[in-house]
């Protein structure tokens, strides 16, 4: 069985700076994989490459067996790759319902605006936002906007969902809610790549973790063993602590 | 049912005007209709999509010169107007593909400069366009009343066409997508909107009807020259009208066009030497104190949930 | 040698062009406002110099600081009273606003001064240098008045550079350009900096106009051309740096010089605009500058 998402030797340079260096990664259908690494490691760059925002400098990205590196972002979205943004990106002056309907209308290919809005209402119920369906996108609280991001990406009927720091800025209760939501999404069969800083979230939600450091993958495996991996501790805390890790 | 009756009454009144007003007032009305076309057209790219285009004069001038040159070559008048529209549309498609990847100021400047370049080309292509001497365009009838009525109806037709297109876009997937682009282009792309295609379509729409109007204008005033046909004010006035009436709505530009013409008439008649400065003053006051236009202060929220989709279970 | 002459002509023009564009680039880079009034401010400066000479007998070169001062106050006032309200507003708003202000200014000048072209005729040349003379060196001929104006123009741009780099005010301005919020957190009075910057832009425009008054005939009808060239220079050289303005100005000067040779001088604006469009389509960063899509 071939992987849903395959990155083969992917590199990306901005001018002289190498943001990603020969990254190879496979995601199987149905996995929930965590992507962690110190600031500047290249996590968001990786997401940007998969979604087509930036072109790859080298290597290839395949989705469902089909080459997507080099395709326009909107085409990749229509193939079933969705993402959330670290800094939330609503349509500020449109209603919450229409914010979500946009995803259904364009990426999921719903026939018309009315059915897109109906599909959107389902997504709003799933994320607990149906109460605020009529409000403008800009009026929601941060937690609400994060859930709106999630609802929008779900409306596109993705097979792969890339969540970029979806918990940043949330308090404990809100994070628990987000985790439940992520589990519900996975239960629907959607493959998830979770970029996170919060260790407790990653360890609870993910069965497998990939660690990026300075553009390279330094560890990739089951959660427990990665968390004890000496290279990972060194990357985060420095070599002084690495020897304690074993 | 009531709405349809109201619309019908308005249409009947507008048609009746042609037989009720004197020639001068009818010419004014024709100018209003032309302004409506320009304003609604700009609204496609500037209001719906949010790209500040200053290229309207390019489309107008191309339509005027295209139609004029064709008439000199023997093409029938109405056909030449339509060809002027086609020429403007093709140009808009090409120009759009070239500059719509720019954002903000850079797009505005690029679109601002294009009419100037076209004007200079028209100036030097003396054998084709008459150059700086201008182009005389045949008067199709010397019966003043008939002449005035015909052009009134011609402009009315284009105005109705533009208005219909505006309504259609407003409720369609295209309009939805353009609104997404206007509010957050990056998010729109990631949600599957083909932003390049939609922007180019909006830009082409902003040129199509303007081109036809330009052609009609040429036959109406019977003389065009490059400075006139590609005048930067042709690009700027529709923007003022739309800002006046409320951008991104369908009827806002219509209201704005009408109000603008009233103001223009008042100024031309009474303050000729100051008309430029007074226009400037209106613009300044508009931007400073009425940024949402006359109709925009109500219902700023677009796409409100229809009542029957709210409050379930 | 024709090539050398053309290049020298270009350099001479380039100096003047850099001065024309310096203020425009500064305002665009720091306030993110495209000042459509800029052309009119240049012409205003030229008229001011004209009247300073005709009414008060002040030689234009000496009038430069005076005119710059007057224009500075005017610019400062406009920014504080009008433009400050639209800082941060969408591009459409700021462009339309400065367009409207320019209409008012243009109308005022036409009504006040009439559209007729006026020439500043010096009754007695500045003692040491005969401004009607020519420099003839290796078959390259340069009128003295243009040479002196060019030097003056370069000096003004250099002065701006020094101001931005060395003075506290200049550093504050650069800080605001780089990161407005961080600058505010550092205690910099943002509206004040904006007003001063706009005033500086106006002052540079006025100074440029004064220098131009000695070389070209003056009329409000020429203001759009200067504005257009300022655009081109900014895109050519890249926004946000004095070096960009110099590169852009000289580049445009040389390109126009060749254009005049090949096509005739009356096409200078068309050539400049065509170049602008090509640049915007293919290379909006210009020859020198950084990415500036947003």
Task: Note the main attributes of this structure.
heterotrimer, A: 246 residues, alpha/beta, six-stranded mixed β-sheet, 10 strands, globular, C: 294 residues, mainly alpha, ABC transporter involved in vitamin B12 uptake, BtuC, 2 strands, 3% strand
Describe the secondary-structure layout.
The complex is a heterotrimer of chains A (246), B (313) and C (294).
Chain A: E1 5-14, E2 17-27, E3 32-36, H1 43-50, E4 58-63, E5 66-67, H2 73-79, E6 81-83, H3 96-106, H4 113-126, H5 142-155, E7 160-164, H6 172-187, E8 191-195, H7 199-205, E9 208-213, E10 216-222, H8 223-228, H9 230-237, H10 239-245
Parallel strand pairs in A: 3-8, 3-9, 6-7, 7-8
Antiparallel strand pairs in A: 1-2, 1-4, 4-5, 9-10
Helix pairs in contact in A: 3-4, 3-5, 4-5, 9-10
Chain B: H1 2-20, H2 23-48, H3 56-72, H4 77-99, H5 104-124, H6 126-129, E1 135-136, H7 144-171, H8 173-183, H9 185-190, H10 195-221, E2 223-224, H11 226-229, H12 232-245, H13 252-270, H14 275-289
Antiparallel strand pairs in B: 1-2
Helix pairs in contact in B: 2-7, 2-10, 2-12, 2-13, 3-4, 3-5, 3-10, 3-12, 4-10, 7-8, 7-10, 8-10, 12-13
Chain C: H1 2-31, H2 38-56, H3 60-81, H4 91-113, E1 134-137, E2 140-143, H5 144-166, H6 168-178, H7 180-185, H8 190-213, H9 223-237, H10 242-263, H11 268-282
Antiparallel strand pairs in C: 1-2
Helix pairs in contact in C: 1-5, 1-8, 1-9, 1-10, 2-3, 2-8, 2-9, 3-8, 5-6, 5-8, 6-8, 9-10, 9-11, 10-11
